[in-house]
Amino acid sequence: RREPLALINLKKKNEETGEEEIASRLDHCKAKATRHIFLIRHSQYNLDGRADKDRTLTPLGREQAELTGQRLASLGLKFDQIIHSSMTRATETTEIISKHLPGVKKISTDLLREGAPIEPDPPVSHWKPEAVQYYEDGARIEAAFRNFIHRADAKQEEDSYEIFVCHANVIRYIVCRALQFPPEGWLRMSLNNGSITHLVIRPNGRVALRTLGDTGFMPPDKITRT
């Protein structure tokens, strides 16, 4: 899913046709469609829960998810799929959003679970996870980035619209990596609960950030960042 030329074995080029065949094979490997990635942060949840299963959405969190679902539906786009973190708060957010997008398939993945992607720079005093977390979570979240954030497959003919429901740390890291910014700066961004971040990946590999943490569709009294 990188530069088309990197997908061709140049040693196998036809001696008779030479450059012409390379050009033909390049066309076969080039992406034609644009991917639209909508990264949704889960809604507000119960912070007192010790285990993940206890960290369910609050009543306000459920309202936020309804508003996010309504906003996505109002865009009038044909969404291809919703991929969501397997954590409870992300799963519940997905279930509520999906009611507004009937027929869109849902896929759960552990790759998008919350974690510590990389040691932030500058450091912060209020959040200091164990160093081992950066190695365990960081490798997984980087794998999520490589697995989900790439140009369209060469066989894809039409533009696609995909929703990813996950967590603030994951989204912030993915945005930095996708825009080729230093990933250590991920903690400088802040995302509201139920917010929408929109990335566009062009066929040539260029990435644009359309919106970051948008909650303009929510009344002010419904906006939280917990």
TrEMBL record:
It is found in: Mitochondrion outer membrane. It catalyses: O-phospho-L-seryl-[protein] + H2O = L-seryl-[protein] + phosphate; O-phospho-L-threonyl-[protein] + H2O = L-threonyl-[protein] + phosphate. Its main location: mitochondrion. Pfam families: His_Phos_1 (PF00300). GO terms for biological process: positive regulation of mitochondrial fission; programmed cell death. GO terms for molecular function: protein serine/threonine phosphatase activity. One of its GO terms (cellular component) is mitochondrial outer membrane. SUPFAM superfamilies: Phosphoglycerate mutase-like. The keyword Membrane applies. It is an enzyme of class 3 (hydrolase). Its EC number is 3.1.3.16. Keywords: Hydrolase, Membrane, Mitochondrion, Mitochondrion outer membrane, Necrosis. The keyword Hydrolase applies. Belongs to the phosphoglycerate mutase family. BPG-dependent PGAM subfamily. This is Serine/threonine-protein phosphatase PGAM5, mitochondrial.
